[in-house]
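Worked example 4.2. Below are the chains of a multi-component assembly; read each line carefully before continuing.
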Amino acid sequence: MNFRFPRACLSSGLMLVLLTFLVEPSAHAVPSFARQTGMACEACHTVWPELTHFGRVFKANGYTLDNLKQVRGVTVQREEILSLASLPPLSLMVQVAYTQLATPLPDSSGVGNSQNGTASFPQQISLFYAGKIAPHAGAFIQLTYGNDSGTLGIDNTDIRFAGLQVLPGDQSLIYGVSLNNNPTVQDLWNTTPAFGFPYATSNIAPGAAVSTQIDGARGQDVAGLSFYAFWNESFYGELGAYRSAKQATAGPLDSASAGGVVSGIAPYWRLAYEHNWGRHSLEAGLYGAKFKIFPDLAASDGAGYGQVLKGPTDDFQDVAQDLQYQYMGDKNLFSVTATRIHEKQTYSATALALGINTVGADLTTFRAAATYYYKRKFGGTVGYFSTTGGAALYNPADPANEMPASLSLTRADTQGWMAEINYVPWLNTKFSIQYTGFNKFQGLSSNYDGTGRNARDNNTLYLLGWLSY
Amino acid sequence: MRNVMLLSAGLLLILCAGAVFADEVVDPEVVAHAERLAVGTCGTCHGVKGVSKQPKFPRLAGQNPAYLAAQMKAFRSQQRGDPDAIGYMWGMSASLEDSTIEALAAYYAVQTAVGASVASDGASVARGREIYEKGIEAAGVPACSACHGPDAHGIADFPRLAGQHAQYVMKQLASFQNNMRNVAVMHGVAQALKVDEMRSVAVFLETLP
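Applying the procedure described above to all two chains together yields the following structure tokens:
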């Protein structure tokens, strides 16, 4: 069945497109770690932010490895009660960018087009506290100013406690707990959403309107505690739970809260196996989460439904697979990352509010990327992305129960590819030329918005200067 | 007068003996600190007991303590200049004290070295053994065993090579050859080695117990 896009819905469609601008991947390679350990970036990163095996172990160990002079405190039993670096582990990250769309976006007045060719100076500036805070504890805390929000806010944050146990047979067990604000930000591989490719994209260009919950949708909106163990640097297991921790919202949350409040706690789990041989590293894993979310209908149908934080919820069950391969030669570095996230959606609460039958949907996201670098200096990545199915709040068994057309705009299907060329003159400086091509955008290749705009009109050329120091 | 001289000599002897003895006494605090470092910090790359799994990082279990201590001091003074030394070890060794270095070297010296690993290329191993035991006369390459011992367990200040990762050995030979790792003896030896000869020696050494 074709979707209908009455003119009255175009503005809400545009809103949705604009909303997608707000979902921007954050990025992270932190020179304060280099200052703390005295090691060059190449110890932890192939080329930042992609982690090497050593980088993964460093992260699992709670960012605590150091060589700096410490301010120390010990008890009479010689128990270490303070170990604080004499210099705070601070760093700054700056992204400046330029974005050019294949066809400019329509002007919000409905007459003519907006200006194409957008300079972002900066797109983002981040301040990090990234390093050890106590003998077995460390933190990665990011404060970001974004030019789109025009404000400074909390970004990815991961505070850890970690320990190491030597097991019989000289095997190691790293264990710990992470307190973080974005499911997968604590993960060790560059396959999962928080630190997966693309590491930086334009915050001006249109992107997929719909994503699975674990794919960044809840980033900086939740607080989670997760327990993990990494046995022999091979088997990794993690269990965690997230709860709404919205920013710029009065707490406790009430009916005036912005959309997407998680009911109760959302469980998170992760299993992975990594095998290293010679210069090769291979990882395969599973991860997932389940979110019960109070629907926010006020924004979408204008009928005055509030964010009532009780009663039924819409449920989102995410199960994902991921795979990573890395080859690290002295001159040639190559890596492949891939993930597939499947989300089973059940819109019980939304259906109840709108007086229709409960509807369900499946949303599947697939991303894969291959990266090559020569001498960590010249490199490139090609990637594919696809989000299909799901999100259309429509009951195929009963056409009379069709959702308001404004909601049907959330149809997912967005597919395309990315190509990126990178020049890394110094290990903490990267210049990128990135091109994103869309085959499908919000369900259609052509006329996806009802005004004749085609998917390929959103093709994006993105120039990025990225400094970390 | 003679008695005074004898007494003085005796005192001097006792003092000297005391000094030597004091030098040999190892502070248990330092040993405990070194063990924590070895497991929690060094172990991240070199394995908790010095048996690294990543071939980029050398195995240290069973290594000669004199050699290890000398290397750590060379990292600390930034005299060992191969790329991984600069990238990893200059930083990690920067604040190590001499006593900690000695204790770390002692820690690794007593760890059990790994057994032989199976090499895939028998011809390469055989060639490597030949070079290791006899050198390459025509190219003026002396036998490695002359300094590193017939079993490659090292002699005095010369390092143990048995069971070392082939990738690491290869990289070191290349570093000696182009003088990034500035050791006159090894520069002389490695200068005439071709890449496939280095590889043969490296895979042979990896098979040794």
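Take a moment to check your reading of the output against the notes. Residues 69 and 101 of chain B are 6 Å apart (CA to CA). The two ends of chain B are 62 Å apart (CA to CA).
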